[in-house]
Amino acid sequence: MDGIEELRAKYLAEAGAASGADALEGVRLAALGKKGEISLKMRELGKMTSEERQIAGPALNGLKSEIDAALKARKLALDDAALDERLKAEWLDITLPGRPRPQGGIHPVSQVTEECSAIFADMGFRVAEGPQIETDWYNFDALNLAPEHPARQEHDTFFMRRAPGDDRPPHVLRTHTSPVQIRAMQDQGAPIRVIAPGRVYRMDMDLTHTPMFHQIEGMAIDRDISMANLKWVLEEFFSAYFGTQVRTRFRASHFPFTEPSAEVDIQCSWVDGQLRVGEGDGWMEVLGSGMMHPKVLAAGGIDPDQWQGFAFGMGIDRMAMLKYGIPDLRAFFESDLRWLRHYGFGALSAPTVHAG
Ligand code: DAH
Asked: I want to staple 173 with a disulfide (CB 3.0 to 4.6 A). Which of 90, 123, 127, 201 is the partner?
């Protein structure tokens, strides 16, 4: 049959030179498509004598397979080449060290708040909360600090503004966490055991004072509560917190909201300028406490003839300084990243609950 050799040469060359999927498809259609040259030739077989057909038929079929195979081979070659290109372009050096990502940390105040909460939770205290902008009544009156009480002045209070002509007492930024005592009593009644950690504010700024700092308030009310319970709870707490047995010393003091009142010291010593809690014969003051004043219980809606309670308040920042050897209070609130990296805690460092 005429022209088969030419067709073979032409299509094998075209298949071999096709530069992509579209070109290959073009070659296939031109040769083997319905109207392709080979297909047209196939149609001519019918018009041939049977001798001619016996030669031309196998020849055309053979050519068809050959072109088919050449197209497939070319497609494979093109795919391989494309893959090689991709492998070259997308090469990854898995031995390169990773890029460091900025990592956050837990602020010592948050860490210590968690630690304290965990220890008190172990003793059945639940966390209570109150607002940081507090009414004059919750922050003072309800805690037996009447408007003319001299202790009010000692609180260096920040007052909120009232509209001109509005002569109700202004709201305050709470000067202590003690107002949460009143709110918790009103919300939950007696018996009750709560702690209230949070921010407090006083107009004070020097080496050891910042206008905002943190306190944790504690309160337990029941039918038979005494100073002995207070002492036990505090010694349990300090021992768990510092991871060593810590003794406490109670000194008579005065707070309007407690009667009797005590300032509490923890046992400590100074060795080579380093503070050691729980050893030696030194004492350091760490909190205020006492038996809740009957007027305070009454302000919280609790009958003082039926119930008694103890309460205490201490500085969280101070607790963090003592445990983690942080020298300067003001640095807590300067957001200096170097300081935070040094004193901050990893996201997964769990609060310690048990004495060492
Ligand atoms: N609220 C006091 C202060 O900020 C601390 C305090 C003293 C809290 C005695 C108490 C307490 O609950 O009983 O200085």
From this structure: 201
Residue 353 counted as domain residue: no
Q: For atom 13 of ligand 1, which residue has the closest CA?
A: 289
Determine contact, residues 293/260, Cβ cutoff 8 Å: no
CA of 258 to the centre of ligand 1 (A): 8
Q: Which residues contact 127 (CB under 8 A, 6 or more apart)?
A: 117, 121, 194, 195, 196, 197
Given a cut of 60, whether residue 288 has pLDDT beyond it is yes
Tell me, yes or no, whether 227 and 159 share the same domain. yes
Q: Give CA angle at 84 (83, 90), nearest 5°.
A: 85
Show the tokens assigned to 192: 């009750």
Q: Is residue 332 part of a domain?
A: yes
222 shares its domain with 319:
yes
Q: Is residue 100 part of a domain?
A: no
Residue 218 Cα: closest atom of ligand 1: 12
Q: How many whole angstroms from 177 Cα to the centroid of ligand 1?
A: 8
Ligand 1 neighbours, Cβ below 6 Å, are 176, 178, 217, 255, 257-258, 288-290, 311-313
Q: How close is the Cα of 261 to the center of ligand 1, in Å? A: 9
Over the stretch 43-99, which tens digit does the pLDDT of each residue have? 888 888 888 888 888 989 999 999 999 999 999 999 999 999 999 899 888 899 988
**Would residue 43 count as lying in a domain?**
yes
Q: Which domain holds residue 293?
A: 108-343
